[in-house]
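step=encode ok
step=design start
structure_in=
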């Protein structure tokens, strides 16, 4: 037990160091963590750390998918459902088929085994490319499509994976049965996801305690994922559906204290999970290489290069017809949704980075088939999956910023950000005006003291004036706003100092101090958010 705890603490220390380096180098931490894992895992003196597929598929994957789904806007997901489906379903199936063909004709795999490999390496991971896309300010629609694909493509790949593994084990594959089973899984998981989302939101509203609500939120992805997965589905689609349902309905059913605490909790939890998983992914290099004795390094390099090239090229081959062909076939679609410039599908195609799901699926391959024979080429599939993850994550991940700048798409989303800020100011102003109108109606009640109403009116007038000032985007006005924020931060620091001094003197109760500090923390966090947006723009 003690060595395990020491190992976990050591991994957390490595994650912290890599996170610091990644910030300084402006490189996604996921890429550096995989490289660090490879570097740490190759020396034989270090303890062998194996990544259990059950841990990834049953414990790691559900909260990651759920968190991404909750953060996803349902309205944006729905409005981009066509391109998301073409990538999350069409591109995954096309890639799996292309890899199966390559494995069959170039490596001598059976078709069933080729589809096992294809299903494993077909779903892209969105963590690393999304972090780059947001930092480089790509157009919002590209980011939304990547987010939507990232939370939906795992379901397609894992269902294909189950069918392919079953075909290898039993030796029989029926397309009719597979299509029918696929449809049943999709419908069943959609219904289950909605049911879980509805139930959990009502339970959280009934409980009304932020700590219990957050605990229920942690349980939600597992309740959504485990039953379908144990019944032969993937669980991914149900978890995505639950997250999207909660994202759409949570605003009116989740209390403000829970949202404030839940945001910080889930941000930290997902950051920790992803960091640990990427580091453990790199640590698998030593285990995979030492476990494969029947193939030379040159053979592994060639086969790994073949599969990696097929995975990368097929995404490009799919992307352009999927982008432009529907508009050529449907003039109404072309009028409603004009074709994007060629740079957009190029960037979407280049972000086909593979990640932890591919490696977990490879590790989850059974040791034997249904008749007791060893699962064919299991160790080779493991190594090929790791090579594809390493090549795409490191190769494409590190070169993606250069590609984006070369295509002229860096900072292309700044105008969209400005439009969203204008919408934000408009919505805030309308909300303040609605509150002021409600205050006028409430102030007519004789039970409302005049001084209380006057204080609230002054408060809302000040907020409205501040909002009107912030809506001016002129450079000089922005400098004045930034200066005002800096001054307010100094004033908040003065308030903190005074509160802490009174607390040290015993003139302030601890509970009172915590409430006052919480008010200052919320305002400080709000100013920090504004500063970050200004920096990004």
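sequence_out=
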């Amino acid at each position: 037990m003690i060595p395990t705890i020491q190992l976990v603490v050591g991994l957390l220390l490595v994650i912290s160091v890599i996170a610091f380096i990644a910030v300084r180098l402006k490189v996604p931490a996921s890429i550096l963590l995989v490289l660090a894992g490879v570097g740490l895992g190759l020396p034989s003196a270090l303890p062998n750390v194996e990544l259990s597929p059950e841990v990834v598929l049953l414990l790691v994957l559900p909260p990651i998918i759920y968190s991404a789904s909750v953060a996803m806007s349902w309205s944006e997901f729905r409005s981009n459902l066509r391109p998301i489906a073409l990538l999350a379903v069409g591109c995954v199936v096309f890639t799996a088929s292309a890899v199966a063909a390559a494995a069959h004709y170039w490596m001598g795999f059976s078709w069933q085994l080729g589809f096992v490999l294809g299903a494993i390496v077909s779903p892209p991971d969105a963590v690393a490319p999304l972090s780059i896309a947001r930092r480089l300010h790509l157009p919002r629609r590209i980011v939304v499509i990547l987010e939507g694909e990232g939370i939906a493509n795992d379901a397609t790949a894992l269902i294909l994976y189950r069918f392919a593994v079953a075909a290898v084990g039993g030796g029989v594959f029926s397309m009719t049965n597979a299509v029918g089973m696929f449809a049943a899984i999709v419908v069943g998981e959609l219904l289950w996801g909605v049911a879980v989302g509805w139930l959990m939101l009502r339970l959280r509203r009934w409980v009304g305690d932020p700590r219990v609500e957050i605990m229920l939120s942690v349980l939600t992805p597992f309740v959504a994922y485990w039953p379908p997965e144990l019944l032969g589905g993937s669980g991914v689609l149900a978890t995505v559906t639950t997250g999207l349902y909660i994202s759409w309905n949570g605003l009116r059913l989740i209390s403000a204290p829970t949202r404030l605490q839940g945001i910080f909790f889930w941000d930290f939890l997902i950051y920790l999970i992803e960091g640990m998983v990427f580091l453990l992914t790199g640590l698998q290099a030593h285990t995979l290489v030492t476990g494969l004795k029947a193939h030379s390094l040159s053979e592994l390099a060639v086969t790994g290069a073949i599969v990696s090239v097929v995975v990368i090229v097929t995404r490009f081959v799919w992307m352009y017809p999927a982008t432009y062909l529907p508009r050529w076939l449907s003039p109404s679609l072309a009028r409603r949704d004009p074709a994007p410039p060629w740079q957009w599908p190029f960037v979407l195609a280049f972000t086909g980075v593979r990640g932890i799901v591919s490696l977990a699926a490879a590790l989850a391959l059974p040791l034997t088939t249904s008749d007791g024979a060893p699962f064919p080429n299991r160790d080779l599939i493991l190594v090929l999956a790791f090579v594809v993850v390493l090549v795409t994550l490191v190769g494409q991940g590190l070169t993606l910023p250069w590609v984006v700048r070369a295509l002229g798409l860096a900072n292309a989303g700044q105008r969209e950000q400005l439009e969203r800020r204008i919408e934000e100011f408009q919505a805030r102003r309308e909300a303040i005006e609605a509150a002021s109108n409600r205050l006028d109606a409430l102030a007519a009640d004789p039970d409302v003291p005049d001084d209380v109403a006057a204080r609230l009116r002054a408060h809302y007038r000040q907020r409205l004036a501040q909002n009107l000032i912030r809506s001016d985007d002129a450079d000089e006005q922005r400098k004045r706003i930034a200066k005002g924020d800096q001054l307010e931060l100094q004033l908040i620091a003065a308030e903190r100092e005074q509160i802490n001094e009174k607390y040290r003197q015993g003139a302030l109760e601890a509970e009172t101090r915590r409430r006052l500090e919480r008010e200052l923390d919320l305002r400080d966090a709000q100013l920090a958010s504004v500063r970050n947006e200004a920096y990004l723009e």
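step=design ok
step=annotate ok -> Confidence is low (pLDDT under 50) at residues 532-537.
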